[in-house]
Design a protein that fits this description.
Layout lengths: L5 E2 L2 E2 H8 L3 E5 H14 L5 E6 L6 H9 L3 E4 L2 H9 L7 E3 L6 H10 L2 E4 L2 H11 L5 E6 L21 E2 L3 H11 L3 E5 L9 H15 L7 E3 L17 H19 L4 E4 L3 H4 L3 E12 L4 E5 L8 H5 L5 E3 L7 E7 L7 E9 L6 E4 L20 E6 L2 E6 L4 H5 L8
Parallel strand pairs: 3-19, 4-5, 4-12, 5-6, 6-7, 7-8, 8-9, 8-10, 10-11, 11-12, 14-16
Antiparallel strand pairs: 1-2, 3-13, 13-14, 13-18, 15-18, 16-17, 19-20
Helix pairs in contact: 2-9, 6-7, 8-9
The structure holds ligand LLP.
Protein backbone atom coordinates (compact mmCIF):
# COMPACT_ATOMS: atom_id res chain seq x y z
CA UNK A 1 0.00 0.00 0.00
CA UNK A 2 1.20 3.47 -0.78
CA UNK A 3 2.46 5.27 2.32
CA UNK A 4 2.15 8.93 1.53
CA UNK A 5 4.34 11.55 3.18
CA UNK A 6 2.49 14.35 1.40
CA UNK A 7 -1.10 15.05 0.43
CA UNK A 8 -1.32 17.12 -2.74
CA UNK A 9 2.18 18.43 -2.05
CA UNK A 10 1.46 19.30 1.58
CA UNK A 11 3.70 17.44 4.06
CA UNK A 12 1.71 15.36 6.52
CA UNK A 13 4.41 15.89 9.15
CA UNK A 14 4.08 19.67 8.84
CA UNK A 15 0.31 19.38 9.31
CA UNK A 16 0.77 17.14 12.37
CA UNK A 17 3.10 19.75 13.85
CA UNK A 18 0.87 22.69 12.96
CA UNK A 19 -2.46 21.23 14.08
CA UNK A 20 -1.21 18.73 16.66
CA UNK A 21 -2.07 15.07 17.09
CA UNK A 22 -4.24 13.08 17.01
CA UNK A 23 -5.39 14.53 13.74
CA UNK A 24 -7.87 13.40 11.13
CA UNK A 25 -6.58 14.34 7.72
CA UNK A 26 -8.57 14.10 4.48
CA UNK A 27 -7.49 14.29 0.88
CA UNK A 28 -10.33 16.11 -0.91
CA UNK A 29 -8.89 15.17 -4.31
CA UNK A 30 -9.27 11.46 -3.56
CA UNK A 31 -12.89 11.91 -2.54
CA UNK A 32 -13.68 13.71 -5.78
CA UNK A 33 -11.79 11.07 -7.81
CA UNK A 34 -13.91 8.34 -6.28
CA UNK A 35 -17.10 10.19 -7.21
CA UNK A 36 -15.82 10.58 -10.75
CA UNK A 37 -14.95 6.87 -10.93
CA UNK A 38 -18.55 6.03 -10.08
CA UNK A 39 -19.92 8.60 -12.54
CA UNK A 40 -17.77 7.06 -15.25
CA UNK A 41 -18.69 3.48 -14.33
CA UNK A 42 -22.40 4.27 -14.57
CA UNK A 43 -22.18 6.79 -17.42
CA UNK A 44 -24.57 4.91 -19.70
CA UNK A 45 -27.58 5.21 -17.39
CA UNK A 46 -29.16 8.01 -15.34
CA UNK A 47 -27.42 7.51 -12.00
CA UNK A 48 -27.72 9.46 -8.78
CA UNK A 49 -25.00 9.04 -6.20
CA UNK A 50 -26.44 9.46 -2.72
CA UNK A 51 -23.43 9.63 -0.44
CA UNK A 52 -24.05 7.79 2.85
CA UNK A 53 -23.32 10.67 5.21
CA UNK A 54 -22.86 8.37 8.17
CA UNK A 55 -19.41 7.45 6.89
CA UNK A 56 -18.09 11.00 7.41
CA UNK A 57 -20.50 13.87 7.95
CA UNK A 58 -18.25 16.86 8.58
CA UNK A 59 -19.84 19.88 6.91
CA UNK A 60 -16.95 20.78 4.61
CA UNK A 61 -16.72 17.19 3.43
CA UNK A 62 -20.45 17.18 2.68
CA UNK A 63 -20.17 20.41 0.73
CA UNK A 64 -17.19 19.13 -1.27
CA UNK A 65 -19.06 15.95 -2.11
CA UNK A 66 -22.04 17.99 -3.24
CA UNK A 67 -19.85 20.21 -5.38
CA UNK A 68 -18.52 17.06 -7.08
CA UNK A 69 -22.04 16.06 -8.06
CA UNK A 70 -23.18 13.61 -5.41
CA UNK A 71 -26.35 13.91 -3.37
CA UNK A 72 -27.03 12.56 0.10
CA UNK A 73 -28.30 9.52 1.98
CA UNK A 74 -29.16 10.43 5.57
CA UNK A 75 -30.19 8.11 8.39
CA UNK A 76 -31.13 10.65 11.04
CA UNK A 77 -32.79 14.05 11.08
CA UNK A 78 -29.48 15.43 12.27
CA UNK A 79 -27.74 14.13 9.14
CA UNK A 80 -30.52 15.66 7.05
CA UNK A 81 -29.91 18.99 8.75
CA UNK A 82 -26.14 18.74 8.28
CA UNK A 83 -26.78 18.10 4.59
CA UNK A 84 -28.97 21.19 4.33
CA UNK A 85 -26.36 23.28 6.12
CA UNK A 86 -23.72 22.04 3.69
CA UNK A 87 -25.83 23.22 0.77
CA UNK A 88 -27.93 20.22 -0.24
CA UNK A 89 -31.47 20.81 -1.39
CA UNK A 90 -34.00 18.87 0.67
CA UNK A 91 -35.24 17.19 -2.48
CA UNK A 92 -31.75 15.72 -3.08
CA UNK A 93 -31.71 13.96 0.28
CA UNK A 94 -32.77 10.36 0.72
CA UNK A 95 -33.88 9.76 4.30
CA UNK A 96 -33.36 6.12 5.30
CA UNK A 97 -33.92 5.82 9.03
CA UNK A 98 -34.28 2.55 10.87
CA UNK A 99 -37.00 2.01 13.41
CA UNK A 100 -37.77 5.66 14.09
CA UNK A 101 -41.01 7.15 15.37
CA UNK A 102 -43.60 8.50 12.95
CA UNK A 103 -42.95 12.00 14.31
CA UNK A 104 -39.45 11.84 12.83
CA UNK A 105 -40.84 10.77 9.50
CA UNK A 106 -43.28 13.69 9.61
CA UNK A 107 -40.47 16.14 10.28
CA UNK A 108 -38.50 14.79 7.34
CA UNK A 109 -41.59 15.09 5.10
CA UNK A 110 -41.95 18.67 6.30
CA UNK A 111 -38.34 19.34 5.34
CA UNK A 112 -38.96 17.84 1.91
CA UNK A 113 -36.59 14.85 1.86
CA UNK A 114 -37.41 11.60 0.04
CA UNK A 115 -38.59 9.17 2.70
CA UNK A 116 -37.46 5.56 2.64
CA UNK A 117 -39.79 3.45 4.82
CA UNK A 118 -38.63 0.23 6.40
CA UNK A 119 -41.67 -1.27 8.13
CA UNK A 120 -45.29 -2.10 7.34
CA UNK A 121 -46.68 -0.20 10.37
CA UNK A 122 -44.88 2.96 9.22
CA UNK A 123 -46.15 2.47 5.68
CA UNK A 124 -49.70 2.17 6.96
CA UNK A 125 -49.33 5.27 9.13
CA UNK A 126 -47.82 7.08 6.15
CA UNK A 127 -50.79 6.13 3.99
CA UNK A 128 -53.30 7.17 6.64
CA UNK A 129 -51.59 10.54 7.09
CA UNK A 130 -50.60 11.52 3.57
CA UNK A 131 -52.76 9.43 1.25
CA UNK A 132 -51.61 10.06 -2.28
CA UNK A 133 -49.96 13.40 -1.54
CA UNK A 134 -46.36 12.42 -0.65
CA UNK A 135 -44.19 10.15 -2.83
CA UNK A 136 -42.25 7.55 -0.93
CA UNK A 137 -39.63 4.83 -1.29
CA UNK A 138 -39.74 1.37 0.28
CA UNK A 139 -36.70 -0.36 1.73
CA UNK A 140 -36.91 -4.01 0.80
CA UNK A 141 -35.13 -6.71 2.74
CA UNK A 142 -34.14 -9.10 -0.08
CA UNK A 143 -32.95 -11.93 2.21
CA UNK A 144 -29.43 -11.86 0.84
CA UNK A 145 -26.48 -12.60 3.08
CA UNK A 146 -23.74 -10.20 2.02
CA UNK A 147 -21.01 -8.04 3.50
CA UNK A 148 -17.66 -8.35 5.20
CA UNK A 149 -18.88 -9.64 8.58
CA UNK A 150 -22.14 -10.32 10.42
CA UNK A 151 -22.13 -6.96 12.21
CA UNK A 152 -22.34 -5.12 8.92
CA UNK A 153 -24.52 -7.59 7.04
CA UNK A 154 -28.02 -6.11 6.94
CA UNK A 155 -30.00 -7.63 4.07
CA UNK A 156 -30.45 -11.16 5.39
CA UNK A 157 -33.63 -12.67 6.71
CA UNK A 158 -32.84 -12.15 10.40
CA UNK A 159 -31.82 -8.51 9.95
CA UNK A 160 -33.91 -5.71 11.46
CA UNK A 161 -33.73 -3.69 8.25
CA UNK A 162 -36.31 -3.23 5.57
CA UNK A 163 -39.64 -4.85 4.74
CA UNK A 164 -39.21 -8.50 3.90
CA UNK A 165 -39.60 -9.30 0.23
CA UNK A 166 -42.05 -11.96 1.41
CA UNK A 167 -44.32 -9.10 2.50
CA UNK A 168 -44.65 -7.71 -0.99
CA UNK A 169 -48.40 -8.54 -1.06
CA UNK A 170 -48.94 -6.51 2.13
CA UNK A 171 -46.98 -3.57 0.67
CA UNK A 172 -49.15 -3.66 -2.42
CA UNK A 173 -52.30 -3.91 -0.36
CA UNK A 174 -51.43 -0.82 1.71
CA UNK A 175 -50.36 1.09 -1.40
CA UNK A 176 -53.68 0.28 -3.00
CA UNK A 177 -55.77 1.00 0.09
CA UNK A 178 -54.28 4.47 0.69
CA UNK A 179 -53.24 5.26 -2.89
CA UNK A 180 -49.64 5.76 -1.74
CA UNK A 181 -47.37 6.87 -4.61
CA UNK A 182 -44.44 4.45 -4.25
CA UNK A 183 -41.78 6.00 -6.45
CA UNK A 184 -38.72 4.06 -5.34
CA UNK A 185 -37.60 0.65 -4.19
CA UNK A 186 -34.42 0.39 -2.16
CA UNK A 187 -32.12 -2.20 -0.74
CA UNK A 188 -28.80 -2.20 1.07
CA UNK A 189 -27.42 -5.58 2.00
CA UNK A 190 -24.20 -4.74 3.79
CA UNK A 191 -20.78 -3.14 3.83
CA UNK A 192 -17.49 -4.46 2.39
CA UNK A 193 -19.18 -6.32 -0.48
CA UNK A 194 -16.44 -7.34 -2.87
CA UNK A 195 -18.33 -9.14 -5.57
CA UNK A 196 -20.22 -7.09 -8.16
CA UNK A 197 -22.50 -10.08 -8.71
CA UNK A 198 -23.99 -9.57 -5.23
CA UNK A 199 -25.40 -6.23 -6.37
CA UNK A 200 -26.90 -7.93 -9.37
CA UNK A 201 -28.49 -10.55 -7.15
CA UNK A 202 -30.11 -7.76 -5.12
CA UNK A 203 -31.02 -6.01 -8.34
CA UNK A 204 -32.90 -9.03 -9.57
CA UNK A 205 -35.05 -8.99 -6.43
CA UNK A 206 -35.80 -5.31 -7.06
CA UNK A 207 -36.48 -5.81 -10.79
CA UNK A 208 -39.00 -8.52 -10.05
CA UNK A 209 -40.79 -6.53 -7.37
CA UNK A 210 -40.67 -3.34 -9.45
CA UNK A 211 -43.08 -4.71 -12.03
CA UNK A 212 -45.87 -4.20 -9.45
CA UNK A 213 -45.20 -0.47 -8.98
CA UNK A 214 -46.46 1.69 -11.85
CA UNK A 215 -45.37 4.98 -10.21
CA UNK A 216 -41.71 4.06 -9.90
CA UNK A 217 -39.07 6.66 -10.66
CA UNK A 218 -35.96 4.99 -9.31
CA UNK A 219 -34.38 1.84 -7.93
CA UNK A 220 -31.81 2.28 -5.18
CA UNK A 221 -29.10 -0.39 -4.93
CA UNK A 222 -27.63 0.94 -1.65
CA UNK A 223 -23.93 1.13 -0.87
CA UNK A 224 -21.37 -1.31 0.49
CA UNK A 225 -18.68 -1.27 -2.22
CA UNK A 226 -15.55 -2.71 -0.74
CA UNK A 227 -12.29 -0.82 -0.34
CA UNK A 228 -8.89 -2.44 0.29
CA UNK A 229 -7.79 -2.11 3.89
CA UNK A 230 -4.57 -4.12 3.72
CA UNK A 231 -1.96 -4.73 1.03
CA UNK A 232 -3.36 -8.24 0.38
CA UNK A 233 -6.96 -7.05 0.34
CA UNK A 234 -8.95 -6.29 -2.80
CA UNK A 235 -11.59 -3.72 -3.63
CA UNK A 236 -14.82 -3.99 -5.59
CA UNK A 237 -14.04 -3.54 -9.26
CA UNK A 238 -16.11 -0.43 -9.83
CA UNK A 239 -15.83 -0.46 -13.61
CA UNK A 240 -17.07 -4.03 -13.64
CA UNK A 241 -19.82 -3.20 -11.17
CA UNK A 242 -20.95 -0.31 -13.36
CA UNK A 243 -20.90 -2.47 -16.47
CA UNK A 244 -22.82 -5.39 -14.97
CA UNK A 245 -25.39 -3.37 -13.06
CA UNK A 246 -25.96 -0.79 -15.82
CA UNK A 247 -26.46 -3.52 -18.41
CA UNK A 248 -28.99 -5.38 -16.29
CA UNK A 249 -30.71 -2.12 -15.41
CA UNK A 250 -31.09 -1.11 -19.05
CA UNK A 251 -32.56 -4.51 -19.85
CA UNK A 252 -34.96 -4.16 -16.98
CA UNK A 253 -36.08 -0.65 -18.02
CA UNK A 254 -36.95 -2.00 -21.47
CA UNK A 255 -39.10 -4.63 -19.85
CA UNK A 256 -40.60 -2.11 -17.47
CA UNK A 257 -41.44 0.09 -20.43
CA UNK A 258 -39.97 3.29 -19.08
CA UNK A 259 -36.58 4.76 -18.16
CA UNK A 260 -35.93 4.89 -14.45
CA UNK A 261 -33.08 6.33 -12.43
CA UNK A 262 -30.58 4.15 -10.62
CA UNK A 263 -29.52 5.36 -7.20
CA UNK A 264 -26.48 4.15 -5.27
CA UNK A 265 -25.39 5.04 -1.73
CA UNK A 266 -21.63 4.68 -1.32
CA UNK A 267 -20.10 5.63 2.01
CA UNK A 268 -16.75 3.91 2.40
CA UNK A 269 -15.99 3.97 -1.29
CA UNK A 270 -15.98 7.78 -1.34
CA UNK A 271 -14.13 8.60 1.86
CA UNK A 272 -12.31 5.62 3.39
CA UNK A 273 -9.01 5.86 1.55
CA UNK A 274 -9.07 9.65 1.60
CA UNK A 275 -8.73 9.71 5.38
CA UNK A 276 -5.69 9.33 7.65
CA UNK A 277 -5.53 9.38 11.41
CA UNK A 278 -2.17 10.81 12.40
CA UNK A 279 -1.10 9.92 15.91
CA UNK A 280 2.04 10.29 18.00
CA UNK A 281 3.93 7.48 19.72
CA UNK A 282 3.84 8.29 23.42
CA UNK A 283 5.47 5.19 24.77
CA UNK A 284 7.44 2.27 23.38
CA UNK A 285 7.52 -0.62 25.78
CA UNK A 286 8.68 -4.20 25.66
CA UNK A 287 6.96 -6.82 27.74
CA UNK A 288 8.33 -10.39 27.88
CA UNK A 289 6.10 -11.25 24.94
CA UNK A 290 5.10 -8.11 23.04
CA UNK A 291 6.68 -4.93 21.77
CA UNK A 292 4.04 -2.27 22.34
CA UNK A 293 3.74 1.21 20.91
CA UNK A 294 1.29 3.37 22.80
CA UNK A 295 -0.16 6.34 20.93
CA UNK A 296 -2.07 9.50 21.82
CA UNK A 297 -5.35 8.12 20.46
CA UNK A 298 -7.34 4.93 20.63
CA UNK A 299 -10.67 3.27 20.11
CA UNK A 300 -12.37 6.50 21.17
CA UNK A 301 -11.16 7.97 17.86
CA UNK A 302 -11.10 4.89 15.63
CA UNK A 303 -13.29 2.10 16.91
CA UNK A 304 -13.19 -0.15 13.83
CA UNK A 305 -10.30 -2.40 14.94
CA UNK A 306 -11.93 -3.13 18.30
CA UNK A 307 -15.49 -3.25 17.00
CA UNK A 308 -15.08 -5.27 13.83
CA UNK A 309 -11.53 -6.66 14.18
CA UNK A 310 -10.88 -4.40 11.22
CA UNK A 311 -7.40 -4.17 9.77
CA UNK A 312 -6.01 -0.66 9.26
CA UNK A 313 -2.61 -0.23 7.70
CA UNK A 314 -0.18 1.79 9.84
CA UNK A 315 3.19 3.27 8.98
CA UNK A 316 5.82 5.26 10.78
CA UNK A 317 5.87 8.61 9.04
CA UNK A 318 8.94 9.68 11.03
CA UNK A 319 11.04 6.71 9.94
CA UNK A 320 10.25 5.40 6.51
CA UNK A 321 13.13 3.00 6.00
CA UNK A 322 15.78 0.94 7.72
CA UNK A 323 15.21 -1.82 10.22
CA UNK A 324 11.73 -3.02 11.04
CA UNK A 325 10.35 -4.98 13.93
CA UNK A 326 7.03 -6.31 15.04
CA UNK A 327 4.94 -3.94 17.14
CA UNK A 328 1.46 -3.98 18.58
CA UNK A 329 0.03 -0.49 18.40
CA UNK A 330 -2.29 0.34 21.27
CA UNK A 331 -4.34 3.33 22.31
CA UNK A 332 -4.40 5.23 25.59
CA UNK A 333 -7.89 4.03 26.61
CA UNK A 334 -8.16 2.16 29.87
CA UNK A 335 -9.24 -1.13 28.46
CA UNK A 336 -7.80 -3.37 25.80
CA UNK A 337 -7.54 -0.93 22.97
CA UNK A 338 -5.57 -2.40 20.12
CA UNK A 339 -5.25 -0.49 16.85
CA UNK A 340 -2.96 -3.02 15.16
CA UNK A 341 -1.44 -6.32 16.27
CA UNK A 342 2.06 -7.52 15.52
CA UNK A 343 2.85 -5.21 12.62
CA UNK A 344 6.18 -4.74 10.98
CA UNK A 345 7.01 -1.06 11.41
CA UNK A 346 10.26 0.79 10.88
CA UNK A 347 11.80 1.32 14.31
CA UNK A 348 9.48 3.46 16.38
CA UNK A 349 10.69 5.84 19.03
CA UNK A 350 8.81 8.10 21.34
CA UNK A 351 7.53 11.18 19.53
CA UNK A 352 7.32 9.54 16.10
CA UNK A 353 4.23 10.23 14.01
CA UNK A 354 2.32 7.13 12.96
CA UNK A 355 -0.28 7.27 10.21
CA UNK A 356 -3.33 5.00 10.29
CA UNK A 357 -4.79 4.53 6.82
CA UNK A 358 -8.36 4.12 5.60
CA UNK A 359 -9.57 6.24 8.48
CA UNK A 360 -11.91 8.43 6.44
CA UNK A 361 -15.02 6.27 6.71
CA UNK A 362 -16.57 5.50 10.09
CA UNK A 363 -13.60 7.08 11.87
CA UNK A 364 -14.60 10.49 13.12
CA UNK A 365 -18.33 9.75 12.91
CA UNK A 366 -17.97 6.77 15.26
CA UNK A 367 -15.65 8.57 17.67
CA UNK A 368 -16.59 9.23 21.27
CA UNK A 369 -15.48 10.95 24.44
CA UNK A 370 -14.79 7.68 26.25
CA UNK A 371 -12.35 8.12 29.13
CA UNK A 372 -13.31 11.81 28.88
CA UNK A 373 -10.88 12.18 26.01
CA UNK A 374 -11.33 14.93 23.46
CA UNK A 375 -11.99 14.38 19.78
CA UNK A 376 -9.24 15.27 17.28
CA UNK A 377 -9.19 18.17 14.87
CA UNK A 378 -10.01 17.55 11.21
CA UNK A 379 -8.04 19.00 8.32
CA UNK A 380 -9.02 18.69 4.67
CA UNK A 381 -6.52 19.26 1.89
CA UNK A 382 -8.02 20.67 -1.27
CA UNK A 383 -6.09 21.90 -4.29
CA UNK A 384 -2.83 21.90 -2.40
CA UNK A 385 -4.09 23.86 0.57
CA UNK A 386 -4.89 22.59 4.07
CA UNK A 387 -8.10 23.73 5.71
CA UNK A 388 -8.94 23.22 9.36
CA UNK A 389 -12.52 22.02 8.99
CA UNK A 390 -13.12 21.17 12.62
CA UNK A 391 -11.24 22.36 15.66
CA UNK A 392 -9.91 19.95 18.22
CA UNK A 393 -12.35 19.60 21.09
CA UNK A 394 -11.59 21.53 24.26
CA UNK A 395 -12.29 20.58 27.85
CA UNK A 396 -15.19 23.07 27.75
CA UNK A 397 -16.89 20.91 25.10
CA UNK A 398 -17.01 18.03 27.56
CA UNK A 399 -18.79 19.99 30.25
CA UNK A 400 -20.90 22.33 28.13
CA UNK A 401 -24.24 20.58 28.72
CA UNK A 402 -23.66 19.44 32.28
CA UNK A 403 -25.01 20.85 35.52
CA UNK A 404 -22.72 20.51 38.50
CA UNK A 405 -24.88 19.81 41.49
CA UNK A 406 -22.81 19.88 44.66
CA UNK A 407 -24.83 17.48 46.79
N1 LIG B 1 -26.87 2.88 2.62
C1 LIG B 1 -27.38 2.43 3.78
C2 LIG B 1 -28.82 2.33 3.93
C3 LIG B 1 -26.52 2.04 4.81
O1 LIG B 1 -27.02 1.57 5.95
C4 LIG B 1 -25.11 2.15 4.64
C5 LIG B 1 -24.20 1.76 5.70
C6 LIG B 1 -24.63 2.66 3.42
C7 LIG B 1 -25.53 3.00 2.44
C8 LIG B 1 -23.16 2.84 3.13
O2 LIG B 1 -22.41 1.67 3.22
P1 LIG B 1 -20.86 1.72 2.80
O3 LIG B 1 -20.79 2.07 1.34
O4 LIG B 1 -20.19 2.76 3.63
O5 LIG B 1 -20.34 0.37 3.11
N2 LIG B 1 -19.49 1.13 10.58
C9 LIG B 1 -19.28 0.03 9.67
C10 LIG B 1 -20.11 0.12 8.43
C11 LIG B 1 -21.58 0.21 8.75
C12 LIG B 1 -22.37 0.59 7.56
C13 LIG B 1 -23.76 0.87 7.92
N3 LIG B 1 -24.56 1.22 6.79
C14 LIG B 1 -17.79 -0.05 9.33
O6 LIG B 1 -17.02 0.78 9.83
O7 LIG B 1 -17.36 -0.97 8.62
Amino acid sequence: MHKPTHIQGVAIEALAKEFGTPLYLYDGGKIVNQIQALQTAFATIPVRIKYAAKALSSLSVLSLIRKAGAELDAVSLEEVKLGLLAGSKASEIMYTPSGVSFEEIQEAVQIGAMINLDSLPLLERFGQTYGNSVPVCIRINPHILAGGNMKISVGHKESKFGISIEHLPQILELAQQYQIPIVGLHLHTGSDILDAEVFLKGGKVLFKAAMHFPNLQFLDFGGGFKVAYSPEDSATDIAELGRIVSGAFQEFCKKFGRKLELWIEPGKFLVSEAGYLVVKATVVKETPSIHFVGVDSGMNHLIRPMMYDAYHEIYNLSNLDGATSSYTVVGYICETDTLASQRQLHTVKEGDFLVIQNAGAYGYTMSSNYNARLRPAEVLVWEGKAYLIRKREQFEDLIRNQEIIQW
